[in-house]
Fold this sequence. Notes:
By secondary structure, the protein is an alpha/beta fold. Helices cover about 40% and strands about 15% of the residues. The chain is built from twelve helices and ten strands. Strands 1-2-3-6-7-8-9-10 form an eight-stranded parallel barrel, surrounded by six helices. A two-stranded antiparallel sheet has the order 4-5. Helix 9 (about 205-215) packs parallel to helix 11 (about 235-245), helix 9 (about 205-215) runs antiparallel to helix 12 (about 250-260) and helix 11 (about 235-245) packs antiparallel against helix 12 (about 250-260). It binds ribulose-5-phosphate. Ribulose-5-phosphate binds near residues 143, 195 and 197.
Amino acid sequence: MDWGMKNRLSRIIKPDTGHTVMLAIDHGYFLGPIKKLEDPGETIAPILSYADALMLTRGVLRNCVDADIQSPIVLRVSGGNSILGKDLSNEDITVAMKDALRVNASAVALSIYVGAEYEHRTLVNLSRLVDEGQDCGMPVLAVTAVGKELEKRSARFLSLACRIAAEMGVQFVKTYYCEGFEKVVKSCPVPLVIAGGPKLETEFDALRIASEAIKRGAVGVDMGRNIFQSSDPVAMLKAIRAIVHEGASFEKASAIFKGGGVKGKGKKKG
Ligand code: 5RP
């Protein structure tokens, strides 16, 4: 891996632990203003310093986030559909690599829809993005999207999608936790992070998923709704950080969450 690529990736996957806690707020690119992201700037201000990286679109970045933040940016560069459209898989590359460089992104993210109608298009998009990333040292994150068909969250399906992304040359992959997750990790030669999916009934359900995924080899999480829609997003991030960076047990993380977070801005990561 070239120096620039390594350097960018090391801003996201922390070299001291080999792990990462990414905060995803890119949902608006096809879902519009979902709960707690009506004003993304307001939502992230008190919690951003507890995350290692921020995943979002260039529109929200430029309009809602201060340019003096130190958090590495994972820029969503795929889209072109909405939740109202016929098929979520009908995506294209929506951001030029030049613009990703202009906003100083540390990685670019694109969804692939393996098994969906536009599978081919999304995989060709991915390979193009990897070529462009290689040209300028930009890591690519493949998001193994499952669209509306959540039943596809099986180890067999996710192994297939993650492995294809890795074969295409991406630097890391985002997927979902599932039963048999260790098989997904074992057959994917690049680091994996997990999404949280729609808000679960309790915060403890999300902490359980994070804990199981880390135990089974994920390098981290790239979670959104289970953090920013939580009753206490700071406490949630603190608990997840303990799991991801310190190998804390589910029980310890739950106690951290129950202890509550600090309300307010600019508190230290820990
Ligand atoms: C949307 C995404 C989101 O970044 C991803 O799903 C993570 O957020 P959440 O934990 O809310 O699922 O890629 O397509």
